Amino acid sequence: MSNIVPSNEPNNTSSSSETSISSPITSTSTEHKPALRRNRPGTKLEDAYQFPHISLDQIDSAFALQEYLQSLIRANRENIDALVELPAGQDKETWQYEHLRQLCLELNYLVIQLEAECTSQTCPEMKADDWQYLCAAHQAPLNCCAIDYIVHTLDGATTLLNSHKYFPSRISIPETSLKHYQSIARRLYRIFAHTWFHHREIFEAFENENMLYARFLKLSDRYELIAKNLLIIPYNNNINDNQDTHNNHNNESSEIFSRDME
Questions:
Q1: Where are stretches of biased composition, namely Low complexity (predicted)?
Q2: Helix 92-114 crosses helix 212-223 at what angle (to 10 degrees)?
Q3: What domains are defined for the chain?
Q4: How do residues 207-254 score in pLDDT, each as one tens digit?
Q5: Which residues are annotated as a binding site for Zn(2+)?
Q6: Among candidates 116, 132, 68, 71, which has minimal Cα distance to 95?
Q7: Interior angle at CA 141, CA 206 and CA 176, nearest 5
Q8: Residue 218 near residue 83 (C-beta atoms within 8 A)
Q9: Tens-digit pLDDT profile for residues 43-81
Q10: 202/212 Cα distance (integer angstroms)
């Protein structure tokens, strides 16, 4: 769905005399003003966001880093290295924050693909290979069906990332909030893992179109968000034998999305 944002361009209804007086000033200021990057009212979905990719310092927005990341993805989602590369002059914690927000956003499209096939009848438990996960979105961890676990996980991660208590600013991340990055990444990984092991066709079709897991994996590797022994999806068709880690993994108390994270 396209985002319809009213145009902020000035209304050129002034008289000809006013125009002739002000035009030199307007012309001069326009040369240095960043281009307005918004979808016009009535823009069709296929025509949305058809503006060229520009450098971060050219984006005139309070959410410049988010818009820059989304622009990179639209420009070439297959260039994973470029997508996770820290922009010059930016804080790596803030860059990771924007990536995690974007991952939550795009994983919602995977949920839509899963809903018809992943039900409480077909997947009564949240499993991936030999692993089983309990849902921590409750007062006490529960054995939710897979689709509920996935939705609860995305809701919990989104709520946490939008919490003014833990992330009061998108420019500077408090040191005490950085611990949540690994917790969020581990839980998001489980969504990919369940889909790969139990809904392989959906996983492959979604990945071929969006390259989201590849981006997530590169981000996790670059910033050490997930321990290697927790990566159970085969990498390059080579399955690492991590059977010794397939125990006691259901719930780590330090990564529960508690109800006070509002």
A1: 1-29
A2: 150
A3: 92-257 (1.20.140.30)
A4: 999 999 999 999 999 999 999 989 999 976 333 333 343 333 444 433
A5: 118, 123, 194, 199
A6: 68
A7: 80
A8: yes
A9: 665 555 566 656 666 566 567 788 888 888 988 889 999
A10: 13
Per DSSP, the three-state class of 135 is strand
Tell me the pLDDT tens digit for each residue of 93-107: 999 999 999 999 999
> Where is pLDDT greater, at 185 or 249?
185
Query: Do the beta carbons of residue 113 and residue 230 sit within 8 Å?
Result: no
Binding-site residue ranges: 118, 123, 194, 199
Q: Cα(226)–Cα(117) distance, rounded to whole angstroms? A: 28
For 213-236, b/e burial (b = at least 16 CB within 10 A) is bebbbbbbebbebbeeebbbbeee
**Cα–Cα distance for residue pair 88/16, rounded to 1 Å:** 45
Q: What are phi and psi of 108, to 5 degrees?
A: -60, -30
Tokens 């499209």: give the residue: 109
Q: How far apart are CA 147 and CA 120, in angstroms?
A: 7
**pTM for the predicted model, two decimal places:** 0.73
Q: Quick one: average pLDDT of 130-146? A: 91
Q: What is the three-class DSSP state of 213?
A: helix
